[in-house]
Amino acid sequence: MKVFNPVRACFVLSLLPVSLLVASPSFAKDTGYLFVSSEKDNNISVLDAKTFEVVKRIGTAARPRHLQFSPDRSKIYAACGDGAAIDVIDVAKLELVDRIAGIEDPELFDISADGKTLYISLEDDGALGILNLDEYFAKRGDKPDLSVAEPAPPGETSEAEDDKADDDAEKDAEKEDAKEDEEKAGEDDDAAAIPGLKTVEVGEEPEGILLSPDGKTAYVTSEVANTVHVVDTASGEMKANIVVGNRPRRFAMTPDQKELWVTNEISGEVTIIDPATNKLTQTIKFQPKGFREEDVTPVGITMSSDGKTVIVGLGGANHIAFVDVASHEIQDYVLVGKRAWNVTFNRDNSLLYVANGLSDDLSVVDVASRKVVKSVPVARVPHTVLIDD
Amino acid sequence: MIRGIFLLIALLLGNAAMATDFTIGYLQLQDDPRYSSKRSFAQYLMQPLGRPYAGAEVALKESKFHGSAVGAEFKLQPVNGKDTAELLAQVDSLGKQGVQFFVVDAPAVTVAELAAATKGKDLLLFNISAREDSLRQAQCQPHLLHIIPNYAMLTDALTQYLKVRKWPEALLLHGTSDEDLQLTAAFERSAKRYGVDITEKRPFELSNDPRHRSQNNVALLTSEADYDVIFVADTHGEFARNVPYQSIRPQLVVGSEGLAPAAWHWAWDRHGAPQLEKRFEKYAGRPMRDVDWAAWLAVKAIAEAVQRSASTDFAKLRDYLLSDAFILDGFKGKRSNFRPWDHQLRQPILLGTHNWVVERLPLDGFLHQTNNLDTLGFDERDSLCKF
Lengths: 389, 387
What we know:
The complex is a heterodimer.
Chain A lengths: L5 H16 L11 E6 L4 E6 L5 E6 L4 E6 L5 E6 L4 E6 L4 E7 L4 E6 L5 E6 L4 E6 H7 L19 H25 L13 E5 L4 E6 L5 E6 L4 E6 L5 E6 L4 E6 L6 E5 L4 E6 L4 E7 L15 E3 L5 E5 L5 E6 L5 E6 L4 E6 L5 E6 L4 E6 L4 E7 L4 E7 L1
Antiparallel strand pairs in A: 1-2, 1-28, 2-3, 4-5, 5-6, 6-7, 8-9, 9-10, 10-11, 12-13, 13-14, 14-15, 16-17, 17-18, 18-19, 20-21, 21-22, 22-23, 24-25, 25-26, 26-27
Chain B lengths: L1 H17 L1 E10 L7 H6 L10 H10 L9 E10 L2 H13 L4 E5 L2 H10 L6 E4 L16 E3 L4 H15 L3 E6 L3 H17 L2 E7 L9 H4 L1 H4 L7 E5 L18 E4 L4 E3 L10 H12 L5 H20 L4 H8 L6 E2 L5 E2 L12 E4 L4 E5 L26
Parallel strand pairs in B: 1-2, 1-3, 3-4, 4-5, 6-7, 6-8, 8-9
Antiparallel strand pairs in B: 10-13, 11-12, 13-14
Helix pairs in contact in B: 3-11, 4-5, 6-7, 11-12
């Protein structure tokens, strides 16, 4: 629905000269690829990080969202919510090589430092899933069918494909059920059908997941319970429930592990938790120019490698914010695309890639000058960006 | 995993042993015609598909962590009454058991009587299904909070959209029931506010009487007038559903049919809405409608107040619920809270067809000096409410 919006039109006009005037810097230190998941086109776009040419679109199960490298960066895991799967991409081959099937509505996940365990937010089940990969691959039997959800032709919806994916997921689920009945196993939960998976019940709509560097604690946000759950990964026990802002989404942790930052979408703020005491220590509010408090819906958040700066994607306010970690002061706002959520640094932290969910593009931000140097169309509803540089 | 579940059960049981019940009363009128099976079967665009109690139950499941800090466990106590007197007796008896928060699912007349009769008492009523503007204006009460949007909010949303689409001329067809006349008045007010021209206003009649054909025949009703859209004010919906494709000219139908404003729509696919819809459908076995959403959000509001104020004290909870600090997430992307002048919940409105949400209102560009959501419904200066 196109609606005339004079405010936005002005912004677009004022942005034009900026993108024309700034000399283009080199976009990546090494020859590398950008990987961008698309929620609606059911694929991961691979772009050359220098030219932004599309190298490949890797089809996945339906609705890929969170992407994360394995610790050795040889694989990318992709949580495919509607396809009920976590897909595995081989980075060297740029191919879908495996699939962890039957995981209902995975949204975000984190990976242990040894790469052997996935911690997954299971949106529909209101649970944290802890998946031992070695056990899964050893016991799962046949490799699942690697069929992908077809991307929609330009200008058409992909509903038919979504339906197909749903049907497939249902068929898989039925198969699993049948298997379960035969084996008389897993009386408690159908998740028991997945070898190596245990679940911990948390508040409804779990979203952000962050594993402490020692792997002993998983932090999980529940969007509905306004809570950060602190889970002991060994016992599955809930160590604390910390009330934060409204609709808490995602995390960033300082390298010294003294501060855990959480975005809160509806209350429009970032809350900071002291992991030693599990208490809130501070709340940061945002006020980019031309937007009101209620337009600010922070979701994506990332920490610079040196732990000095946090970048927050302000969602509906179409800006990202640079926040100084030492002082907790907001240093800058940068206007990007529509509904800016996830933000990703390149390896030397000279550039930021912002996924704009409602304008189907990426904004490339030069960190030194804090300016958008490039706006790159990718695919429908981009979710997460990774760079292999 | 099994170990994890055992631990969790132990944890929940541990809590339960210490927790005290926080009971929310849920009042519903028996034989409420709005929930007749004939109406819900017809799936009129502005009507419920069933009793909204399931919405409150879904909210209860979502609120299991909200009371943990104060050791409170939320419970719902549904009660029925065949009239206002019976419902009042139930309020009294629950009040004696310490219940001070009541979700009210009743028509406007009953809501007004309940609110007038309980004035000054330490309790709060949450209106989840009466959309009449009068409850927010002359009949307003300080302890009556409205979760469901009123007609003025709905028609403001629609006229904003007509204005932006440049469809500024409307033919108004209206029923003659009290409810229809309230909706008609709301549309006339909105048309004036946002510059939509009502070129003709014609009453319709639900009949087949050939002597009344100028009022019951859609082709005749829609002829000899100049307009961009046909607005049908039919809160029931039986006449309105017959208007699309029957007009003399190929014009769009809005209001009670065609494109209708709503608090909730099953097809809304942003702001976590699909997850809520999924939870509700799994539980209730049917799509969620406005009143279901309002029942859900009423319970969520109470749970949110308990969580944020870390208290079960009535005065503290009431003050917090009605304060500027209160933030409620209605899964429509904008934070909601209660307008201080009439205690109506601010919220975005969805404009939907039978299977899609065309737009979320207010639209960009409709600006308000303090909160853009107040471009929908009665702003402070329009309010006739005096607490």
